[in-house]
Amino acid sequence: MNKSRRNFLKLAGGAAAGLCFGSAGVALASEGAHRGPYVEESPKAFTAKRWAMVVDTRKLKTAEDIQPLVDACHSVHNVPDIPTKQDIKWIWSDTYEHGFPTTENNHLSEDVEHRAFALLCNHCENPPCVRVCPTQATFQRPDGIVMMDFHRCIGCRYCMAGCPFGARSFNFQDPRPFIKKENPEFPTRMRGVVEKCTFCSERLDNGQMPACVEASKGAVLFGDLTDKDSEVRKALRENFTIRRKPSLGTEPGVYYII
Amino acid sequence: MQYGGKIVIGLVIFVGLLLLPTVYDLGAGSAGYKQPKLQMPAPPNDKNCVEDTEWMRKNHMQLLNDWRDWVVRDGKTVYVNSHGEEFEISLQNTCMKCHNDKEQFCDKCHETAEVTPYCWDCHLAPKGAK
Q1: How much of chain A, in percent, has pLDDT values that exceed 70?
Q2: Cβ within 8 Å, pair B75-A149
Q3: Integer angstrom CA distances of residue A133 from A49, A139, A246
Q4: Calpha distance B86→B81 (Å, rounded)
Q5: CATH domain A51-257 topology
Q6: B7 and B60 share a domain?
Q7: Nearest CA to CA, how far is B43 from chain A (Å)?
Q8: Where is pLDDT greater, at B38 or A21?
């Protein structure tokens, strides 16, 4: 064999090409043989570009009206009931003055002044809690839900300082003794972890509406804000709505029909 | 060497102590180790696990880590295993539905291996099914 440089390069090039095509062929063959392991979304999952909620405060007027929503949410998510200031809340009721301090007005109509409002995490478009979280335990999903990964939370409470809506609670103690009836399908939290409403992302991913929406009997609407024909957009078109502290620019995703 | 004897004795003791775990392990140690007997799922849940038993024994911790991130962070709730079978990604609603006794399954090995995973600080272990 002629040991010239030219022949050596030809041989090396041919061998390299053979290796490339050979391994590609093997990979393709094994691809066809069996699928997985891989992961996918459930075919049942509800999807949207931007989830939003519309609360009809004409139907949910008092704390008693809102209580079934609170009970539904807190029992599904193993939220403890602690009879002190260290209580945990995902959804709760409060007055107009407390919920909407920037749009408070003199001589408010008596009806609105005494009305109770269901307050919860607003799942803002520009969530300050996500910006300040040092471990990315709080993050924004592509569908707009401001989600918490409780595994990553280190309990620094920056998010609680960052949230202008008081939507977050801190577990000062082990919450388990304060959970009346545990839901075995959902975890609890541990001491030193912050928690809040997750727009029932785990239910949406399995094709269920959020627990409070189901418990509200039509007084709370939930849907895709980018879809012109969705229930929420229809409600927003037909009714006058407000949001909490809009001047802060966080773009809340929870709207209130007045 | 002024203190030769003492130094040599000291060295022998030191090296002996240093090698003690290795020697112990070579001798009685490894023979004395028995793999814990786990309670495997009773019928009709004994069909097949998410992956093969041997693979799970070695890799379940990595799989659980991946599952956590997929389901919490990526919203992917269906795991398709290497045989093409589908499973819901959930510790409480998939794993523990078959392995329904934490003390007789998880804890057996974890105690023997002296590892303390903190899954159960938050996740609820199945109750009643003893």
Answers
A1: 93
A2: no
A3: 24, 8, 22
A4: 7
A5: Alpha-Beta Plaits (3.30.70)
A6: no
A7: 22
A8: B38
Q: Residue B24 in contact with residue B90, Cβ under 8 Å? A: no
Spatial separation of the C-alpha atoms in residues A31 and A4, rounded to whole Å = 41
The residue ranges of every structural domain in chain A are 1-38, 51-257
- Cβ-count burial A6-34 (b if 16+ within 10 Å, e if not): eeeeeeeeeeeeeeeeeeeeeeeeeeeee
H-type alpha helices, chain A: 5-33, 63-76, 96-99, 110-113, 128-132, 158-162, 201-204, 211-215, 231-238
Query: Do residue B69 and residue B109 come from a single domain?
Result: yes
What is the C-alpha separation between B60 and B53, in angstroms, rounded? 10
* Cβ within 8 Å of residue A102, ≥6 positions away: A245, A246, A247
What is the reported pLDDT for A39? 93
**Which of A34, A149, A182 has its CB closest to that of B124?**
A182
Contact A66, A93 (CB under 8 A): yes
Domain that includes residue B18, residue range: 1-33
Return the exposure string of B78-111: e unless at least 16 CB atoms fall within 10 Å of the residue's CB, then b. bbebeeeeebebbbbeebbebbbbbeebbebeee
Q: What is the pTM of this model?
A: 0.82
**Under an 8 A CB cutoff, do B79 and A141 touch?**
no
B85 and B27, same structural domain?
no
Task: Tell whether the model's pLDDT for residue A133 goes beyond 50.
Answer: yes
Count of the separate structural domains present in chain B:
2
| Residue B117 is assigned to a structural domain of this protein | yes
Neighbours of A99 (CB within 10 A): 22
* B129 falls within a domain: no
Residues B18-27 pLDDT 10s: 999 888 877 7
Show which residues on chain A lie within 8 Å of chain B, measured between beta carbons: 34-42, 45, 78, 139, 141, 143, 147, 149-151, 182, 184-190, 193, 201, 205-206
Give the number of residues written for chain A: 258
Stretch A118-146: mean pLDDT: 97
Selection from A217, A182, A238, A181 nearest residue A60 by Cα: A217
Domain assignment present for B41: no
Q: Does residue B76 belong to any structural domain of this protein?
A: yes
| Contact at CB, A186 and B121, closer than 8 angstroms | no
* Shortest alpha-carbon distance between residue A148 and chain B (Å): 8
